[in-house]
Design a protein that fits this description.
By secondary structure, the protein is α+β, with helices and mostly antiparallel strands. The chain has 7 helices and 16 strands. Helices cover 23% and strands 29% of the residues. Helix 6 crosses helix 7.
């Protein structure tokens, strides 16, 4: 039986409202015209941190006229899309000195992206996250993987072109499966959480791992559960997904049924595991349990909340 998911975003960094104009951004004349329009605006990043201003309605992105933003970061701009036909860009300032103490003094403050996600509206978080991922990719792909020569921007920043050998390079997205394993025991269903040693004290989360070449989502889920917890997956159900701009992952949220509750942490990825009933999951989310959940911006939090509410396999 197929389950159709609504398009309403469930997770932070999803729900970007912009028309990316992928059919038009390859035209440099059109792009130049967009940047010169009076209504063209740009969000500003500094080393991946968005510029946020205080506002009577709450914190929001500091939007600058494109002409002003372009002066702040020559050759470090990207076309994000159209907002009700108005062009939206992003620029990134590089360097160790905080521009809020210099060229953008008085316009706001730069916040690390995770902190920004807790401050901004959903749509602004999605736009800022997309810009961060795009600039992160461009920073890592200044040279052609085919011939080693320098690449240049094309398509409004959504492509890098090597003029030496003609190879085009496009932003990469790394797929990651993240799943709650569920086992139905005599006391009802329980979900499995794991803990990495580097996390804050008490923090536990859903298990996760990168999808490997030649592997389906279901196979990746089963492999990660087997490797990290020693359990066999018997069924997989999709829940939702999340763009995760650290630097550019797509988190694929799943529930999976496992054949046993005899989980054993592998002591490499995980140092401990724990099973939670629905009541315990609710207590975890409300701070009334010894286990601390992942932060609300993470899809793992969404999965635990869905399980606590009665969803899952």
């Amino acid at each position: 039986m197929c389950t159709f998911m609504p398009l309403t975003p469930l997770n932070t960094f999803a729900g970007n409202p912009l028309d990316r104009a992928g059919d038009r951004r390859a035209d440099p004349t059109w792009l130049a015209q967009q940047a010169e329009r009076d209504e063209a605006l740009a969000l500003v990043l500094w080393e991946g941190r968005p510029l946020i201003e205080d506002h009577a309605g709450g914190p929001r992105l500091a939007w600058l006229p494109m002409t002003h933003a372009r002066d702040l970061a020559p050759d470090r701009e990207a076309f994000l899309g159209l907002w009700k036909d108005a062009p939206v860009f992003a620029v990134e300032i590089e360097g160790s000195l905080d521009p809020a103490e210099g060229p953008v003094r008085g316009l706001g403050a730069f916040h690390e992206m995770r902190a920004a996600a807790a401050l901004l509206s959903g749509v602004e978080t999605a736009m800022a996250g997309a810009a961060k991922s795009l600039f992160d990719w461009r920073r890592r792909h200044g040279f052609c993987a085919a011939c080693g020569k320098e690449t240049r921007d094309a398509d409004g920043g959504w492509k890098r072109r090597c003029e030496a050998c003609g190879t085009d390079h496009f932003p990469r997205v790394d797929p990651v499966v993240i799943m709650l394993a569920v086992h139905d025991g005599p006391d009802g269903p329980r979900c499995l959480l794991g803990r990495q040693a580097a996390w804050p004290a008490g923090r536990m989360s859903a298990l996760a791992g990168f999808v490997e070449p030649g592997e389906s989502i279901e196979e990746a889920c089963a492999r990660e559960i087997a490797e990290e917890a020693g359990l066999t997956v018997t069924a997989v159900r999709y829940h939702s997904s999340q763009p995760w701009p650290f630097p550019s992952q797509l988190m694929i949220g799943l529930f999976c049924t496992v054949d046993s509750d005899q989980a054993h942490p592998d002591q490499t990825e995980l140092e401990a595991v724990a099973w939670l009933t629905r009541d315990e999951a609710r207590a975890c989310l409300t701070g009334q349990h010894a286990i601390k959940p992942p932060p609300p911006i993470a899809i793992a939090h969404t999965l635990i909340r869905a399980f606590a509410a009665g969803s899952g396999v």
